[in-house]
Write a sequence for this structure.
């Protein structure tokens, strides 16, 4: 990790088995139900969950035009335990520069319950990462609400 890198994190407990939590994180049908960063909705998912596999999420904004594209590549995959992948944001509608991050997602089993821990390492300390901190809290709350139905 570079000295000027910035790390963000969030975690939350879930009243579902770890296998269900893992599926909700990687399955297109599940993702489209709960994941709405900056009020965008997910319109397409490419998710090749294996080391070297590619990730591509395309989101549309209020006018149904593409507003956000997230791409990356899996570096480590341990089913129901851990995912490590690059996380590159490309916001179409404004002048925020493309941002490059690395995510570590840990799925921790606790009997019939589970915990999810997100760590986001940013390549540089930059004001553009500040919205991500709030974004992770909101996303994990939305995931929890979805899985509680």
């Amino acid at each position: 990790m570079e000295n000027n890198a910035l790390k963000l994190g969030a975690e939350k407990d879930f009243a579902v088995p770890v296998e269900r939590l893992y599926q909700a994180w990687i399955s297109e049908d599940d993702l489209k139900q709960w994941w709405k960063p900056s009020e965008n909705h997910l319109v397409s998912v490419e998710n090749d969950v294996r080391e070297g596999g590619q990730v591509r999420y395309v989101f549309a904004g209020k006018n149904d035009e593409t507003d956000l594209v997230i791409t990356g590549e899996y570096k480590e995959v341990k089913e129901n335990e851990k995912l490590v992948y690059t996380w590159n944001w490309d916001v179409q509608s404004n002048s925020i520069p493309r941002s490059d991050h690395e995510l570590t997602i840990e799925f921790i089993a606790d009997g019939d319950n589970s915990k999810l821990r997100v760590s986001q390492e940013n390549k540089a300390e930059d004001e553009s990462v500040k919205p991500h901190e709030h974004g992770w809290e909101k996303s994990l709350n939305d995931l929890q609400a979805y899985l509680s139905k």
